[in-house]
UniProtKB/TrEMBL annotation, chain A:
It comes from Alligator sinensis. The gene is SPAG1. It holds the Pfam family TPR_16. This is Sperm-associated antigen 1 isoform X1. Residues 841-932 form the RNA-polymerase II-associated protein 3-like C-terminal domain. Residues 357-367, 394-410, 417-429, 440-456 have a biased composition (Basic and acidic residues).
UniProtKB/TrEMBL annotation, chain B:
SMART domains: WD40 (SM00320). This is Dynein axonemal assembly factor 10. It holds the Pfam family WD40. One of its GO terms (biological process) is apoptotic process. The keyword Cell wall biogenesis/degradation does not apply. WD repeats lie at residues 134-147. Keywords: Apoptosis, Cytoplasm, Repeat, WD repeat. The lineage of its organism: Eukaryota, Metazoa, Chordata, Craniata, Vertebrata.
Amino acid sequence: MSDQPMPSMLYQGLTKTYQIPIGHLDYTFIEKCTDVKHLEKILKILRSGEEGYYPDLTLFCEKRIECLAPGSRALRKDKPAATAADFTTEEWEEINGEIKSWMTEMQEDYKIQLPKTQILHERLDNLPPVRGSDSCVPIGQNQGSGKKQRKKKNIPRDYREWDKFDVEKECSKIDECDEENNSKSRLLTSSNVPQIERTIDLTGMSESEKFFIANREKEKGNEAFATGDYKEAVTYYDRSISVLPTAAAYNNKAQAEIKLKDWHSALQDCEKVLDMEPGNLKALMRHATANKHLQNYQAAIEDLTEVLYVEPENAVAKKNLLEMEQKLKDIKPVSKTHTKRQRILIQDIENSDGEEERERGSGDKKTGVLVQEEIATEKSEMGNVQKKFTSKGDGSRSDDKETQNQREHTGSGAKKGTSENRTPKHLPDQEAEVNGYLNNDKKKSGNSNVKEENLRSCETVSSSSGKSISTLLPPTAAKLKSEGNELFKNGQFGEAVLKYSEAIDNVINLGVQNPDDLSILYSNRAACYLKEGNCSDCIQDCNRALELQPFSLKPLLRRAMAYESMERYRQAYVDFKTVLQIDSGIQAANDSVNRITKTLIDQDGPSWREKLSPIPVVPVSAQQHRWDGGTFTSETKQKSVTDVSGDKQLQINSEKTEERFRILKTEGNELVKKGKYNEALIKYSECMKLNSQESTVYTNRALCHLKLCKYEEAKQDCNHVLQIEDTNIKAFYRRALAYKGLQNYQASVDDLRKVLCIDPNVAEAKKELEEITQFLNPNVTTSSQQKQRKKIKIHEVTESNKQESQVSTSEDAMINHIPSEGGAEKGVPLKRSEKLLISEPSTAYDFGQSINAVNARKDKAACADLLMIINPPKLPMLLSNKLDGDTFLIFIQALECYILGKNPGLVYQHLFYLSKAERFKVVLTLLSKNEKEQVRHLFELLSEKHNHQFSSEDLESLKRVYEL
Amino acid sequence: MSGGGLEKPQLIAHLQQALNYTAFQALWVPRSARFLCLGSLPRGTGIIQLYELQSGRLSLLRQIEKPKPIKCGTFGASSLQQRYLATGDFGGNLNIWNLEAPEIPVYSVKGHKEIINSIDGIGGLGIGEGAPEIVTGSRDGTVKVWDPRQKDTPVANMEPVQGESKRDCWTVVFGNAYNQEERVVCAGYDNGDIKLFDLKTMSLRWETNIKNGVCSVEFDRKDINMNKLVATSLEGKFHVFDMRTQHPTKGFASVSEKAHKSTMWQVRHLPQNRDVFMTSGGAGSLHLWKYEYPAQRSKKDSEGVEMGVAGSVNLLQNVTLSTQPISSLDWSPDKRGLCACTAFDQTVRVLIVTKLNKI
């Protein structure tokens, strides 16, 4: 490559510019050369093409330079803008998608024109006055620093100002001014102590503006933090929070405060974050750091364990945890009981807060003084602006005070929060809750309906216990809560969630600090979410509840269930295990643990345990021994028994037989729930030997007989009961079923009528009555055995619910409870649930909720109400793909019983659009004969009612659609 | 070469639109996906065009023609709710327009004898404490501060001493507005002078000369205690001043960097990160920079007086979009990485800068 002769012209060209011998344009030279400047020159020559075009060598040279000095300017090349080709498709799509979504967001935003006039005026009033009239600053060209001409004129020119005139102050100000003049550094001093307002004036700001400004202030804080101006960062975070409190701003502020070693404030801010976002890892870590520096090692350890619980691999947390534990060990001999120590520490925090507050206060005062001083200098500079500036200064001062007050306020609020959080758990309440759970949990079984019932009753228990123990709940919240409970029981989980949320907001807003109640509210809401299948929210609420009430049973169990249904088996396993630590007797938890263990072994192999996060150790105080629970339940059950059987039984039985009777009966009930009717039968029979007057045993045994299709025996049991109590509604009902089984339809109808006579609201009886009336109809020749069995099955469920209601301590809250004595009461408790609130559903979800509620009670009237308010064409949309046999049937029945008489046109419309619904065909094919008969019956009735809204041809074609 | 560069921010030319006039400035309308182009029609009249980003294209929503070519504009003194545009034109007029009803200006004043080269606003948009004010810099050598609430006369006027030759003021900005009282104006002149006026004390706080005409100055943020100032110059160099520490004699510490081979027309800081800024060059190039702070931002000199220490600047990315100068650039205040720029090839471009959140 290098030419020996070296053409003189080329050589000259080089020497002219860089004096580089041509021999340096060589791979070997470039490789060895370490002088970047020299290499850059070589690169320039190569690029210029003076010596010819050597792309490889150029590239090699570039690489060499890059290797030696990556930031070299010579490497900068003109590049075209990036295009799609420079990105992977995913990246490109992400970029494009982001822009697109932003554009649409902005377009939406633009449409919402912000309200103008009034707000703007308000804000204009708050603006500082127009700057003093046309003031000129003469400038020369680069003639050193400006010439400031100060007129010293500090004497007030207004009478009022004379009052404020403080001679000494003015004197000292003059001194200061002189000093400043001497040092010529007024500007510098002022820039060293920037006075940034800690709050932002919010008058006339819309929400979106607030959001924008809060975000901007936070960003300013972040930037200041990045440069290491932690004080400034804290100020800007404060400003952001003053506009819109966000967890992120508090979190960042805490970090800045940690940097400033302001541990107490950091601790408070972390707590605020954790209030807003429980389980925020960063906040937890910072909380731990602050605690560590406050020598609050126990608390720090708690934080760190929580972090490790979520993120077991967090190395920093692990390291800190070890350190903490070491420190704690060193200290331990000094202080023995850490609950006490914690208490003292809390007080410590409070005290120091006070101090801090005061410090800040004085700081603010200083600010005021400083402002004054500055005003003074202002005065000296420009006499004519004096007045305005003074007033401005005053204004800002009062502002300062106000903000200070505010801060004090929030500060104390937060303090309360912390101390409340730390208070030892409310034991009685918790116990009651746990017991309540135990009560219900006994009844837990695989049957989902029973389970649901179970949850309901446990809800009731928690609410009742909540009421009885804590009257701390504000009345509105308490009301909302009970409304929520009511809705929950009715199966309207979505609305219940709203009520609970309102209650929670209410409690939080009022600032009433009762973690127990709040915990229950969260726990209840979690139950709703669980029901709705919204597992993630359920988990979140459980977390909150647990934060307020560590190791309380129900939230734990619910979280466990939620985790399980989300297939997060490891967390579910840990939670179930924790539950079992609190109470080892919970069957559901035991079952689930076994089930999950299997799944985990399948999933992770034999070493599955290693992948689990550590199971928290439950403090003894929170553990509920089975034994305790047992006595408690027995007590309540006893009570319930006495409730049911009334006075009669108490007089006869000795305590011992009563005990035995009770055991036998509960065993019987258990067996019924498990579907072991034969065994249950034996138990009940034994019961009867002990006490033949107990009607519930007979009704229960009648149920068993019914299940076993021993209708004759069932009838006899019922007769027996009716001899003792001639108004026992259940006995009538079961006897009706027994007659039905015996195909003695007339007797069955009579009994059902009696049931309805005692309580006209028993929907099952009505339904049954209708069915049996149809059997009596000569048109129907035979009724298939299969159908009957199916019907009975439906009743089984409700029956067992009733069964439970007898055992449950919260009888009066049950929907289907029928008082076993005093038929004259005519189902007082039923009245509460009589009216199902039906509002027009706008979405398929609302509609589904209403339908669930309707289905749960077989409430045709409510269903009819619902159908009346729905615009028929919307029906397919509302039903979406949720049409099932039960819904279909209740529609048909509601149409027939309630709407047909009033508005046959609507019936036709509904039938027409029902046939358009999704899954209609499927449902239709799955209908049993008898159910089809009902549909046919409806059509027959409809054809009798002539209406201008539909012709007989229309009806015929529709009939064909319904495959009749 | 560019293979390994994907971790760096990339500049994507997202959309572009050819114009039939010379555009001097592109300006985003706050809280929207719209921007304005201000310029001069061939027949010597002024024009304001409102564009909106729509999927895959720019659509012209509105076009307003005014008698004088419009050199510059700002929303800085208007509230987020009003979004009034303040413009400076070739005739030295300062006008404030309600874009919903642009026929008559909301505020109008013949502020300068000659063209207004630069305008800046503060106190609106939630940026900057204190009263809304507009500053204009003109070829007549004066820098004037206006309060929209006061008609006809400026609230502050910075003009050359009698008898001295007037210098063309090319650029003005507000800064230091971190509380109700503090506020400064920085102005750059054709002879390389940079002057910092303190509006609180109504005095010249600092001045320097960077030898070449100052095309553009900007504070990294207007609404904080002055932090950094970037000034670009005619011969393709820019200076970053650390504005936190002012030495009584040495002034502010600075670092300079030569990037473009030609004039550096404008510098604009990323609204979401004050340490990232873009410079636009005479040869149609854009350079994206990041300022790195030194370990210690100030030190004591031999006499024990605090003096600032400058950091360094790193080039993050550079692209060449055109052969003609890029006259203006504006970052979208709402969307990180989105910016619009106008060039003398009579084109307005919308660019996307990626990975700005990872810097």
